């Protein structure tokens, strides 16, 4: 595992997944590969200085490769010098070794998803939500919620969506004025655009549509197209699409609209806290007790204290 290579220097012969691979040119004019390798425990920067076209073909993002090389450090960080690279057939390996997965089994989450959809009392919203999620079920249940920041693992999109929904339902118990059916539909569909924004669960990256349009716009388009095809009443469709368009809360964070309904406000708040807590958990896991995390760019550059036991 990559986590076990921390501090190790010497030869290795291991299998990894290629997360990213970039062909570049060195100062002497020769081509080399800069490759980010991954397994379920983390990522590892590597360089292959002498390459062939076969090496370039082998090092495709998402592929499993056998790597022979020398572990070392560069500017204080672990780096692998690759000497040999060869393809590994996916059928010969357990993919769970290479792809971080959600903490809840996907099959179990899908059961919960179906229960939540069935609980929508409004027939128009239930049909709209079910139609969209049935069509995108494989992607919705396997894609990460982000490339790096939060829930960046297989099943992360579904896990995050269900977590946001649970938070929204708890808020509705406290504030009965909230429209429960719209909270369910909005929470489940708020990130549906990520099924087009991202390339998949293996070595996730942004698609051309993702870079050009972003998941908020893509999600609104998906819901609008499905709603029109199903003859969803315009008022309901507009109300739901507004929740999607405003779920990042502010224009500077990518939302073309700020929340203007109670349900949109709650969805934004719950999406924000779930993403931030997932991000914070990653940093805390890499921090010693009694110390502060590094400054976290996605949380206003704040550093957070990791306390030990406080009940002594």
Summed up:
This protein is an alpha+beta fold and 312 residues long.
Could you explain how this protein is built, in words?
The chain has 312 residues and is α+β, with helices and mostly antiparallel strands. Helices cover 41% and strands 19% of the residues. It has ten helices and seven strands. Strand 2 and strand 3 form a beta hairpin. The mean pLDDT is 92.
Write the layout of secondary structure elements.
Elements: E1 10-25, E2 31-39, E3 42-48, H1 53-58, E4 64-74, E5 77-88, H2 106-118, H3 123-135, H4 137-142, H5 156-174, H6 180-189, H7 194-197, H8 208-229, H9 234-245, H10 262-285, E6 291-292, E7 305-306
Helix pairs in contact: 3-6, 5-6, 5-10, 6-9, 6-10, 8-9, 9-10
Q: Write the element-wise H/E pattern from the N-terminal end onward.
A: EEEHEEHHHHHHHHHEE
Using DSSP, what is the number of strands?
A: 7
- Give me the number of helical elements: 10
Shape: globular
- In which order are the strands of the major sheet placed? 1-2-3-5-4
Structural class based on helices, strands and sheet pairing: alpha+beta
Indicate the mean pLDDT.
92
Radius of gyration from the alpha-carbon trace, in angstroms: 22 Å
Strand content range: 15-25%
Q: Which consecutive residue ranges, at least 5 long each, have pLDDT under 50?
A: none
Measured distance between first and last alpha carbons: 36 Å
Major β-sheet profile = 5 strands, mixed, barrel
Proportion in helices: 40-55%
